[in-house]
C-alpha cells in the first residue's frame, strides 16, 4: 500500500509517508481534555468544549504543508551554525530517511530519521489528565558526537474559538503569557486570556530545563512575521527572547539544550501541554508527568483501558478485513463518536454552536453500550435533559453550558423549527441499553425536561420511562394529511427541508421502531395496557404507511404539504431514496414481498462499487423549495452521494430478509480497511469510516470526505455484530441468529454479556445465509435462538449450526 499498512498485532495503522492525500488523524483523550492529532504532528485540543474552551489554533483549511497547532523543532549544532528541522516533517519539509506515524488506540507514535537523528515521539493524553504528553526520544545515529536542542512549540487560540476568527482586535488585546521558572531550570510557560488569568490557564512545560522561551509569534518567526514556520528566525540565535507576551498571537516555545549525544545515545524529553485553574494548580498538575515512570504508567493505563474496551467482543471470520474493523478500528471509532458527537473533526470544526447532536449522539450510544455502558448511560442522561415537555427534542447542545438550540432549523423563518425524528432515536438508545445491561432501574431515574422558567430552572422533570413515552406521544399527534408523521424542518436527512405540512416516511418507520421497542419493554415491565396501546399505534401507522407510500417498485420518501410525492417514479430528480426502502423493512411495516422489491430496487438503482447512494437522480440546481439538498451538485453528500450512514441500514434490512450475501457485499464494499487498492481515489483514512463518498453522478466518484465523526460507525458496527454475525442482546438473553455470506463455513466469537463470557462457534455446513437449526449451550440443546443469561463471571460454550 502506498501510504501505510495495518499492523494488527499492535492494533496500529502505520503511515509510512507524510504525504497522504489529506491529513489522516487520530483522537487523543476525550472531550474532558483532548482532541485531534494529525499524522504530521499538528494538534487541535480543547477542554470540555471545543467552542467555549479551545486551546490550540489549528486551521485545517490551510495547506497540508503549513504549521498547524503544534510541532517540535530539533536544532543540531553543526559547523558554522545550526541545522533546524521538524521530526514531524511539517512545517520544515526536510528530506527524510524514514517516516512512520503509528496510529494507535488513543495515541500516535511518530518515528522519523532526518540527517542521522532518529526521533520517536509518543503523543497521548494520560487517562483522566488535563494535559497531552509528547514523550520524545532523540537518538544520535551518526558515528560522531552531536549537540542537539529540542524546541516544542504550540500556537494558542482564544478560548472562544469563534471569536478568535471574528474579532481581531479584542482577541489579541486579551491574550497574555507568563513564564514560571523553577530552581531546576524547568520552565512552565503559561498562557491565558486576561479575564481568565486566575482561573483557566494553558501551559507548556517539560521534564528538562529550558534555557530560554518565547511566547510571541511575531518574535519567534521574526522580521515582522516575514520569517516563517519553516525557518523561524528566532531559532537562528543561540537563545530565544524570553518574552512574556502582553498581547497578540500567543505561542509557547521552550528551548531545551539536550546536550551532546555520543553515537547511539538517546535523550528523553517529555513535553506537556495542559490546562489548569491557575498558576499554582498548573505547577502542581505539571509535576506528575515530569516523572518518566509516571508517563510510562499512564501509557500502560491507556493501553489497559483499550484492552478492557476491546475485550468485550472478539471475532474470527474468513475475512481478515472484517475482523480488523469489528475487533479494533470500528469500536475505536464508535468510542470516538460517542465522545465527540459531530462536534470536532477536520470537517466539523467545533467553532460555533453545533455542539452535541441529539439525533447523532443517541445513535452513537448504540455503538458503545456493549463496551462502556456506564458512559453510554451518562450520555443518555445529558440527551434526555434537552428533551422538551412535549416529547420533542432540542436538536443540539453545548456540553459545557448545556445550552441547547434548534440547529439549522433556525435558519429559515418559513420552515418548522424542530426536527421530526430527533426525539425518537433516544427510545432506541435507552431500550438497547436496557437489553444489553438489564439496568431497568434506569427507567426510574428522574431527569428534567429542557423547558425552563425565567430563572432558568426546569419546569418539569420525569422518569426516563416518562421521557420515552412522551417521545412517541409527540409523533402520534404530529401527523399530516395521510396520517403520517410530519417532517418538521427535516428528518434524518437534514437537507430536505420542505414547506410546513410535509410528511416523512422515514419518521413513520422510526416511529414504528420506537413503538415496537416500547411495547417490548412494557411487556417486560408487565404493563399490558401499554403494550396493547403501543401495538395498536404501530398497526395504525403501518396501515397508514402502506396505504399511502407504495409506489409500485419501491416506497415513496416524502409527501409535500399538498400531497405531491418525493422519491417516486413521478419525480424526475430524487426518484428513489435508500432510507425509504431500508427502514420499512427494519420497522416491519413492509411485508416481505414489498420489502424484497424495495431492496432489489436499491440494488438496481442505487448501488455502486463504492457504496449505496442515498438517492437518485441528484437535483441539478438550487431549489429553495427543497432546501439544503439542492445546494450540492449531483452525486455529492445527501444529493445522490454515497452517504455511508445509510448503508448499514440496507445491510440490516437485507439480513432481516435473509440475504447474507448481499448484506456482506454491501459491508465489504465500504470497508475502509479494504480500500488499500484505491486509496488515491478514496483519500481519507483507511482505518475509519468517512461520512460521505462522491457518487457516480459526480466526476470524482469514489472520493471520501468527513472521516471519523459519522453515524456510519455505530450503525456499521451494529450491522456487522448484531445482524450479520447476529449476536444481539435481548431482555431474556443473548440471541444468536446469524445472517452470513453463504460462502462462510462459519465463524467464532467471544462476547461478554452481563458479565459472563460466551464462546460462540457458528457452523454453516450447508452453505446457507440464515437459519439456526441447532443451538447448544454447554452441550445442552436449546429451542430458538436465545442463549439464557448466565451468571456473571462464568463462561458459556455456545454451538450454533445453520442449515
Ligand atoms: C449529518 C448529521 O450529523 C446527521 O444528524 C444527519 O442525519 C446526516 N448529516 C444526514 O443528513
Looking at this protein, list some descriptive labels.
single chain, 803 residues, alpha+beta, 10-stranded antiparallel β-sheet, 6-stranded mixed β-sheet, 18 helices, 28% helix, globular, binds 1-deoxynojirimycin
Structure in words:
- It is a single chain.
- 28% of the residues lie in helices and 26% in strands.
- It has 18 helices and 42 strands.
- The radius of gyration is 28 Å and the shape is globular.
- The two termini are 39 Å apart.
- The mean pLDDT is 97.
- Bound molecules: 1-deoxynojirimycin.
Provide a brief overview of the structure.
This protein is of the alpha+beta class.
Topology:
Elements: E1 4-7, E2 12-15, E3 25-30, E4 33-38, E5 43-46, E6 70-78, E7 81-85, E8 98-103, E9 107-114, E10 117-124, E11 131-140, E12 146-155, H1 161-166, H2 170-174, E13 175-181, E14 187-193, E15 201-206, E16 212-216, H3 217-221, E17 250-261, E18 266-276, H4 279-288, H5 292-310, E19 313-316, H6 320-340, E20 356-357, H7 358-366, H8 373-384, E21 396-397, E22 404-405, H9 422-437, E23 446-448, E24 461-463, H10 464-477, E25 503-504, H11 505-525, H12 528-549, E26 558-559, E27 565-566, E28 576-577, H13 578-587, H14 592-605, E29 607-608, E30 611-612, E31 615-616, E32 642-643, H15 647-656, H16 660-669, H17 679-682, E33 690-693, E34 704-707, H18 712-724, E35 727-729, E36 733-736, E37 746-753, E38 756-763, E39 772-777, E40 780-781, E41 786-788, E42 795-802
Helix pairs in contact: 6-18, 7-8, 7-9, 7-18, 8-9, 9-10, 9-11, 10-11, 11-12, 11-13, 13-14, 13-15, 15-16, 15-18, 16-18
The structure holds 1-deoxynojirimycin (NOJ).
